[in-house]
Amino acid sequence: MNIKSVIIFAFALVIVVLTVGLFSCARTVSVASNGEVPKMVDEDISIGVVVALTGQHAEPYGFPMQRGFELAREEINSLSGMNLTFITVDDQSTPEGAKAAVQHLVNQGVPAIVGLAISTHLKEAAPIAQANRVIAFSSVSSAAGLSGIGDFIFRTSLATNISIPSGVMVTQQKIGYQKVATIYDAIDVYSRSSNEVLKRVLEANGVEILIQETFETGDTDFSQQLTNIMAVEPDALFISALSQEIAKIVAQTSEVDFPDSIRVIAPDLTMDEVQKAGAGADGTIGFIGWSSMSDAPGNQTFIENYRAKYGIEPEPWAAQSYVTLRVLANAIKVAQSADSTAIRDALAQTKDLPTILGDFSFNPDGDALYDQIVLVVKDGEFHVFE
């Protein structure tokens, strides 16, 4: 090669290097695991949605979640410039259905899956998403430790090991209970986790647990357990259960003449359970992640938009699902990519993001951090617990 050729080659090489460098400064593009350049956010992005549309979890969880996701999607698409589309799969209110739904969505090539309400379902299905490097972002499940399944697992609900310690601190200071009883679902992952955390936190605060009663998902008669609890005369009763059983237990406290001196505390109490429990719910205390009374930025606008679209009051699970998609969309925007790994990295860095739940962050495990609210039922309505 002569000197002139060498000079031309060197000049061309410099141009290539500068061009690549300038492009890299403008936007960093991560390469997907299959070697393809991932889609950018100005293209359609399909998000998997796993919710219960049939079975026992559809009415209390699945339908509100679906409404919250859809409202958020409409707002995101109209305001952000990105276009999110949904591939929705019914988990049929079973762990097997949740696993099949996640596998189907993984096969469809979605970068992220939202929904997965029940902790038992997330425990079974999340490993499928993790193994395929697909984000599983649960808007409702809260059993301790489930985000630890892997670095692609995130949750919006406050995990039991985060919500219960603060709830116990507030209620014990104001009620002063020293001896308590607990009742929990022995086969449900969330309920067992809640009871285990309660036991640990209560004992650490010098509270004696006099009795621990159990039942199983689907049970409808809790009179014997409540009678056993009344016999030991605790200061408070903690209920760890899913929606249907919470409503029935609270309702039956009035049927067995449960004394007012025993304060009833259900950490995940919502207005749905309050309405179903009727008069028995009066005085019941809940640890709540979202409230219509919150002055968090955008919360009242969310409530107005939800009412306008659906003609009903928003439910907590709708609010948390709304936040889930907004947080995911923010991560996609930050990542400037539809690649699941890039989105995961952006999600993990989420800190003090303004949401209708308050300033929203993730801890290193992928569990949400924000301030919860302690409410009490008076005359069928929630009030801030004083």
Work out the count of structural domains. 2
CATH secondary-structure class of the largest domain:
Alpha Beta
- Largest sheet, strands/sense/barrel: 5 strands, parallel
Strand content: 15-25%
Which structural class do you get from the secondary structure elements?
Answer: alpha/beta
Mind telling me the C-alpha Rg? 24 Å
The stretches of 5 or more residues where confidence is low (pLDDT under 50) are 1-39
Given the structure, what is the number of helices? 12
Q: Superfamily at the CATH H level of the largest domain?
A: Response regulator
Q: What is the global morphology? A: globular
CATH topology of the largest domain: Rossmann fold
What is the typical, i.e. mean, pLDDT?
90
Encode the helix/strand succession as letters. Answer: HEHEHEHEEHEHEHEHEHEHHHEEEEE
Query: What is the oligomer described by this structure?
Result: single chain
Query: Termini distance?
Result: 87 Å
Helix share of residues? 40-55%
According to DSSP, the number of beta strands is: 15
The spatial strand order of the largest sheet comes to 2-1-3-4-5
Question: From the 3D coordinates, which CATH architecture of the largest domain would you assign?
Answer: 3-Layer(aba) Sandwich
Task: Write a structural description.
This protein is of the alpha/beta class. The protein folds into two domains: 44-158 and 295-369, 3-Layer(aba) Sandwich (Rossmann fold); 161-288, Response regulator (Rossmann fold, 3-Layer(aba) Sandwich), CATH 3.40.50.2300. It contains twelve helices and 15 strands. A five-stranded parallel beta sheet has the order 2-1-3-4-5, sandwiched between helices. A four-stranded parallel beta sheet has the order 7-6-8-9, sandwiched between helices. A three-stranded antiparallel beta sheet has the order 10-14-15, covered by helices on one side. Helix 2 links the parallel strand 1 and strand 2.
